[in-house]
Design goal:
The complex is a heterotrimer of chains A (about 325), B (about 500) and C (about 325).
Chain A (H helix, E strand, L loop, with lengths): L8 H7 L14 H5 L1 H5 L6 H9 L3 H6 L1 H5 L16 H14 L10 E2 L9 H5 L5 E8 L2 E8 L9 H5 L5 E2 L5 H5 L14 E6 L6 H8 L5 E6 L7 H9 L4 E7 L9 H19 L7 E6 L6 H18 L1
Parallel strand pairs in A: 5-6, 5-7, 7-8
Antiparallel strand pairs in A: 1-4, 2-3
Chain B lengths: L2 E5 L10 E6 L5 E7 L6 H4 L8 H4 L8 H16 L5 H26 L1 H5 L11 H8 L1 H22 L8 E2 L2 E2 L5 H30 L2 H8 L8 E6 L11 E5 L5 E5 L4 H4 E4 L8 E4 L16 E2 L2 H7 L6 H14 L10 H20 L19 E8 L2 E9 L5 E7 L1 H4 L1 H15 L8 H12 L18 E6 L5 E7 L1
Parallel strand pairs in B: 6-11
Antiparallel strand pairs in B: 1-2, 2-3, 4-5, 6-7, 7-8, 9-10, 12-13, 13-14, 15-16
Chain C lengths: L5 E6 L5 H7 L3 H7 L3 E4 L8 H5 L6 E7 L2 E3 H13 E7 H6 L11 H11 L14 E3 L4 E3 L3 E6 L9 E3 L6 H12 L68 H4 L17 H12 L8 H6 L4 H5 L8 H7 L1
Parallel strand pairs in C: 1-2, 1-3, 3-5, 5-9
Antiparallel strand pairs in C: 4-8, 6-7
Classes of the chains: A alpha/beta (about 325), B alpha+beta (about 500), C alpha/beta (about 325).
């Protein structure tokens, strides 16, 4: 601990709520071993190293470290840290300082189409990261109230894209047309049920499980979405309408969602969809299912898919 | 082999209908039927719906009388939750109801049934509408009529957002309190309406009551039925549109029964015929004896005429004076002449306006407490209100969350269905004779028999079809023509 | 022979509100009536079906058809008017997407007939009598239309040129459409007319929600004192405005009741109900997963809530009846 009167980088980080206790870190690296981003997406992602950089006053390195920009506060590391440091809070504090210095997120975030946006504020309310906010600006020569996304906060989960009633907030790859065009299953095996699986990028932790997913024949199709919060019940309806027999949506277990709340959001939507089927068309209800896979659930995906196929076979037989 | 003539569809009223006339070989009438060819099934598809949404849902039964269902549904919801509406909330609901009554009754008189009277039942088809009325009585009158309707539509919009399918009434009260500005606006509109209401009664007097041919028509047996009469009354047996008990009098005018909403099933039963989708309500304690008149038949009527017959008077002074004049002119209570309903309707119009003024000048209507949040567990409730066309009953059974399990509705015009069928038959019997062709005028006179019952909607302004030249003559009070406008 | 455009108005399974909305034009209708000929309008004029049958094909320039298709007479007249009209407009929520009567599609025809003609407690000994397509009376036969097993929209029955949403379409929008037609401004076939772009929230003056403001308890409109200044969603009250095409001017919201979606889904949305639950589902407060079921129980009657006016036009309906 410094006794001098100059304010260090670490001091600045500590001063921001969430940035406290970072000096407790003794660099054990447990956080890195838990981190899904490091394992699946970016090997250079390293919370331990980032905290070190802060403590060593390596400001520029900290501000350009991918860790600063890619942390989604899933907090898998937090319960594991032996020093009980809220690591995502520390990272968030670093990001805040970086933004103040003019640094920008390298991530391709969602954008709002002002011509479509009605300023309803739904995206503002649903975003786990409080990225969108309503502003008054000129659109087509007239003052209008529309949403604007703070690209330094957006983590690209897509929850807003599904929630927006007008399709006004989106990005390439997860826009409605991008997903809808994947909703078709062509197969010669007409006797097997056709199953569409929506899987979030984070619920299957190990490569073995991913291989299971890709091992099924062509009557099963997988659509990858960043987060199960991106699921839109319309997609399940379109799938059933096109002749697909069942839809399985797979997210993370509660408390383990990579984007904080996406899995809970997804489960609510599919639950409400199920209630609508119960009222209107009870026989069809079992065709859309939402499952939540935990970090420790190895191989479970196979059981879930096989179980679903079996149910669909039974429904076909009836 | 009998000849069948169908009037298809019947026109200048709300709803679908067809009249089938069966003539024998000689050309006289064997029978006449008023057929309702549609069913939408509200009593089924409302199951599962939340009871607090019923004011929104049931008002789509009728886009002409949406407010009647809107308020009845809110009252039934109050009954289901056993919640009492705060006084200001009730007053606002009543103003909404009264303004809607004025608009509806006014529309019927000037546009729907009225033209038959004012222009004449045998007038050419093209004149039997509001423009024909304007031609006959002058443009100034036409303008005042439109103003009356628009003013009362405006009052409804101030309270409920819009005239067609308003939103004001909710379980426990209304959605928002009345502001001082709104109070003033409504009062101004109501005061102007009062003048028009009085004027319209004067008009009826000069055009109809002073015309012997029309009076004979009104009093003719062809358009009369001796039935029971039903209407909602307050504790003094005065006509009340919003609340009270249902009073039924016999064809000779004696009180037969007075029941509370919860007792409606002890008093009303419905008869089904396979040739129509609408059912025939009748008085259970008298029994269904078929489509016949008299004290032995359970057929009853619920309409402006019936309400006046079933009551001991009107609760406001000007309307009360008209009530007394009505019975003095037509030979005492009860009046059985169906066409007298047009007059009774105007008396109710006056009453409604007087009531708006009474309620709106009472500053208790400004109290911000207009909605009581229910605390009881919902279960079952019945509400009865007067719709312009007749007594309206909503009966709901819900689960403990307030979701509907069962719904029964006995709707305004339905009360009169048996009587309407009888009126059609009697008019047709009187008009269709051997050797006489069934002309347009005869068919219209048959249609007049039902138009008296059914105010429905209409057209405040009406397009003149085809290329007919239009002539508008403007008269002063001495009936001197002061201007003639032509469009050839 | 008249050079003036010929208009027709007809109603199928509807309530009559769409006729009254024409009346609400007041003096503006007189203006219009001087430029057109109304050749068929059962509620207000005495022309009968035979008069329409006698017309030439496409003799009617524009027919405004409101009401859903509930029985074979509705379908018959829809086909007749389609033949006799150059332009056919599905006018109002019922013709556009089924309207409130299409909530009956949740149930089957038999259970509806059973409720009305058997179960209802006020039915007398004639209970069990069912209306028949043909009844042999001693004087002759009476025929009545046959009910279909569900409500269909106009576009599911005949080819429709334009749709004009609303329950009913507001008078000002009707006026806009009349003016456009008279001026010859005919939009591209298949479009919605009488609407404004975007959704209702665009014009709503209420204070919108803040970051992370979510629904931790659903409040039904009678369970709270509805606030007039703030977005209903922030009060926990379901409002469909965000998922509803703009154009009505928000009379309901201004009178302090949440929007129920009668103008139908905005452009780009296929199924209004599914979109609504995609929006509402994301608004639920998910901070305590163990409480989610309890919160969702407060969202009562999902079908009647999410598809109040459009069940006949939904994919949910299509899946059931295909």
């Amino acid at each position: 601990m410094s006794h001098s009167t100059t304010v260090t980088f670490a001091d600045k980080v500590r001063a921001i709520p969430g940035g406290e206790h970072l000096e407790m870190c003794y660099s054990c690296g447990t956080c890195v071993s838990k981190c899904m981003i490091q394992q699946k997406v970016e090997p250079d992602y390293n919370p331990r190293r980032l905290i070190r950089r802060v403590l060593l006053d390596q400001v520029e390195d900290a501000f350009t470290d991918p860790t600063t920009w890619m942390c989604s506060a899933c907090d898998l590391c937090f319960p594991a840290c032996p020093q009980k440091i809220h690591i995502s809070g520390v990272i968030g504090a670093v990001k805040q300082l970086a933004v103040a210095e003019g640094y920008k997120s390298p991530l391709e975030t969602v954008k709002v189409d002002d011509k479509l946006c009605s300023g309803c504020g739904v995206c503002v309310m649903v975003c786990p990261y409080e990225a969108p906010h309503l502003v008054e600006k000129k659109v087509n020569g007239q003052m209008d109230r529309v949403s604007l996304v703070d690209k330094n906060r957006c983590m690209r989960c897509g929850t807003c894209v599904a929630a927006c009633p007008l399709g006004a907030i989106s990005r390439k790859g997860v826009a409605n047309p991008d997903i809808v065009k994947q909703i078709k299953i062509k197969t010669d095996r007409t006797t097997s049920p056709k199953l569409l699986i929506f899987i979030c990028d984070w619920s299957l932790r190990v490569d073995d499980d991913l291989r299971i997913l890709e091992s099924y024949p062509s009557n099963i199709r997988v659509i990858h979405i960043p987060c199960s919060g991106r699921i839109d019940p319309q997609m399940a309806m379109l799938a059933l309408r096109s002749g697909i027999d069942g839809v399985l949506v797979c997210g993370c277990a509660p408390g383990e969602c990579h984007f904080k709340r996406g899995t809970n959001v997804g489960s609510c939507k599919i639950s409400l969809l199920g209630q609508m089927f119960d009222q209107m068309d009870p026989e069809r209800g079992g065709r859309v299912r939402f499952i939540q896979i935990g970090t420790q659930d190895r191989g479970r995906i196979r059981n879930e898919i096989d179980g679903m196929l079996e149910s669909l076979e039974l429904m076909k037989a009836r | 082999m009998n000849q069948k003539i169908s009037i298809d569809p019947i026109t200048r009223l709300e709803g679908h209908g067809r009249i089938d006339l069966f003539l024998n070989e000689e050309g006289s009438l064997e029978n006449a039927y008023m057929i309702i060819p549609e069913l939408r099934g509200f009593e089924k598809f409302c199951e599962g719906r939340p009871v607090e949404e019923m004011p929104q849902i049931t008002q789509r039964i009728c886009g002409v009388c949406p407010t009647a269902h809107h308020i009845a549904a809110a009252k039934a919801g109050d009954a289901v939750y056993k919640v009492e509406v705060p006084l200001a909330g009730r007053m606002i609901r009543e103003v909404l109801n009264d303004a809607f009554f004025v608009g509806d009754h006014g529309t019927h008189f000037f546009v729907l049934g009225g033209p038959d009277f004012i222009v004449g039942p045998g007038a050419p088809k093209a004149q039997r509408n509001v423009l024909g009325v304007v031609q006959k009585v002058g443009r100034e009158v036409g303008g005042r009529a439109i103003q009356l309707l628009q003013d009362n539509h405006e009052i409804c919009s101030i309270i409920g957002g819009r005239f067609i399918h308003p939103v004001a009434a909710i379980v426990g009260g209304v959605t928002k309190p009345m502001t001082v500005e709104d109070q003033q606006k409504i009062l101004n509109l109501a005061r102007r309406s009062l003048e028009t209401a009085k004027f319209t009664l004067d008009l009826f007097d000069s055009l109809v009551l002073k015309n012997k041919e029309y009076v004979d028509l009104i009093l003719s047996d062809m358009y009369a039925h001796q039935t029971y009469y039903m209407g909602l009354v307050d504790e003094n047996n005065k006509v009340n549109f919003y609340d009270g008990k249902v009073r039924v009098v016999t064809p000779s005018g004696k009180e037969f029964v007075k029941y509370s909403p919860e007792e409606y099933l002890d008093n009303i039963a419905e008869h089904i015929e396979p040739w129509t989708y609408l059912k025939f309500p009748y008085l259970k304690k008298v029994g269904w004896k078929g489509f016949i008149d008299g004290e032995g038949s359970g057929v009853y009527r619920a309409s402006p005429l019936a309400r006046l017959n079933a009551s001991d008077g009107m609760a406001t002074p000007l309307a009360q004076a008209e009530y007394e004049k009505f019975y003095a002119t037509l030979g005492g209570k009860p009046v059985h002449a169906t066409l007298a309903t047009h007059w009774a309707r105007l008396i109710e119009l006056l009453f409604a306006v007087e009531q708006i003024i009474q309620l709106t000048t009472d500053d208790r209507i400004l109290d911000p407490n207009v909605h009581a949040i229910p605390t009881e567990i919902p279960s079952e409730g019945v509400a009865i209100i007067e719709a312009p066309r007749g007594t309206l009953t909503h009966h709901y059974q819900t689960d403990e969350r307030g979701l509907l399990k069962k719904v029964n509705l006995i709707v305004g015009t339905t009360n009169n269905y048996a009587a309407i069928d009888m009126s059609i038959h009697k008019a047709a019997q009187g008009l269709i004779h051997k050797g006489r062709a069934v002309s347009d005028e005869i068919m219209n006179k048959i249609e007049m028999a039902f138009r008296a019952y059914d105010p429905c909607f209409g057209c405040a302004t009406h397009a003149l079809p085809g290329d007919s030249p239009m002539i508008v003559r403007i008269y002063d009070h001495d009936r001197q023509m002061v201007q003639e406008l032509r469009r050839d | 022979m008249s050079q003036r455009p010929k208009l027709a108005f007809y109603w199928a399974a509807s309530c009559g509100g769409c006729e009254i909305t024409i009346v609400e034009l007041g003096m503006r209708l007189v203006e219009v009536s001087e430029k057109v000929d109304i050749v068929f309008w059962p509620c207000a004029m005495d022309f009968k079906y035979d008069d329409v049958r006698a017309m030439q094909d496409k003799e009617i320039d524009v027919c405004f058809f409101n009401g859903g298709i509930r029985n074979d007479e509705n379908e018959h007249i829809a086909a007749l008017l389609r033949r006799k009209s150059k332009i056919l407009v599905a006018f109002g929520a019922c013709a556009h997407m089924g309207g409130i009567p299409s909530l009956a599609n949740q149930y089957d025809k038999e259970s509806m007939l059973y409720r009305v003609f058997d179960e209802i407690p006020s039915n007398d000994d004639s209970r069990g009598t069912r209306p028949q397509p043909t009844t042999h009376m001693k004087e002759g036969d009476i025929e009545i239309p046959i009910l279909y097993d569900r409500v269909k929209t106009l576009a599911q029955t005949v080819e429709v040129d334009y749709s004009m949403p609303g329950c009913p379409p507001v008078a000002d929008q009707v006026w806009n459409v009349f003016q456009a037609l008279l001026a010859g401004n005919i939009p591209g076939k298949g479009s919605k007319i009488g609407v404004d772009p975007k959704s209702n929230c665009d014009a709503c003056a209420r204070q919108k929600g803040k970051s992370s403001q979510r629904i931790s308890e659903f409040k039904r409109p009678h369970e709270v004192q509805l606030d007039q200044e703030t977005c209903f969603l922030t009060q926990g009250v379901v409002c469909y405005g965000a998922a509803t095409q703009a154009g009505c001017g928000l009379p309901c919201v201004k009178a302090n009741f949440p929007c129920r979606g009668c103008y139908g889904p905005p452009d780009g949305v296929t199924d209004q109900g599914a979109k609504l639950i995609s929006e509402i589902g994301a608004l639920i407060d998910t901070s305590k997963p163990e409480e989610l079921n309890k919160i969702m129980e407060g969202f009562v009657d999902p079908v009647g809530t999410a598809y109040r006016f459009g069940l006949a036009d939904s994919i949910l309906n299509e899946l059931k009846y295909k």
